[in-house]
Design brief:
By secondary structure, this protein is α+β, with helices and mostly antiparallel strands. The chain is globular, with a radius of gyration of 16 Å.
Length: about 200
């Protein structure tokens, strides 16, 4: 597996770096430890998202809303594509010391019954999760597939909203607090994975 690392000598950085530098020059972005990054364009196509959702529901067990998607011939392209964007985004924004993914992709369904998911949350905790550095979320549903269900992150100045655009990716530090609004109607599907590294000091 290709390792996630801080590599400042990368020659072929993606459009992320150009966008970052342009916005910084125009004073439209303030880099802080509480930064949410949303891709402007889909990282996954409509067909890819639909196939991921289909594969997720084939693995999920009755009565559950979450399942793991391990690396295999079907999902390897997801892991590799997310690694690439994490490397570029981390180099531009946080510059964390990262290793790789220590957990599998998680396929999740948010629906109107998941009332416990509307509480204030965080992605860093005890044991293995203490070394989570970045949370990566892939939006698999169309904005019109559901009502409500916004993910709102808090950075102590103003709320930050996760993208609702299908195929787009959101990345943020695991120590940021967030809230997922209750789904009023419909279903929202996402992929979530965490990039790991040594504990923050």
């Amino acid at each position: 597996m290709k390792s996630i690392c801080n590599n400042t000598d990368v020659d072929n950085m993606t459009i992320i770096e150009d966008t970052y530098n342009k916005l910084k020059k125009e004073n439209e972005i303030i880099v802080s430890p509480f930064q949410l990054y949303n891709t402007l364009y889909p990282l996954f196509t409509e067909d890819e998202c639909n196939n991921i959702v289909k594969f997720g529901y084939e693995r999920i067990t009755k009565g559950n809303i979450i399942c793991d998607l391990p690396p295999n011939e079907i999902t390897n392209f997801i892991y590799n594509r997310l690694r690439d964007i994490i490397i570029d985004t981390n180099n531009c924004y946080w510059k964390f010391n990262l290793y790789d993914f220590a957990e599998q992709l998680k396929f999740i369904e948010y629906n109107s019954v998941n009332t416990n998911l509307s509480k204030l949350c965080g992605d860093i905790g005890n044991n293995l999760s203490v070394t989570r550095k970045l949370t990566i979320v892939v939006q698999l549903s169309n904005d019109t597939d559901y009502e409500g269900g916004n993910t709102i992150l808090f950075n102590y100045s103003k709320p930050l909203f996760m993208t609702r655009k299908k195929g787009c990716v959101s990345i943020y530090p695991t120590y940021m607090s967030y809230q997922i609004e209750k789904i009023i109607k419909g279903v929202r599907n996402v992929l979530i994975i965490y990039a790991y590294g040594p504990p923050l000091k």
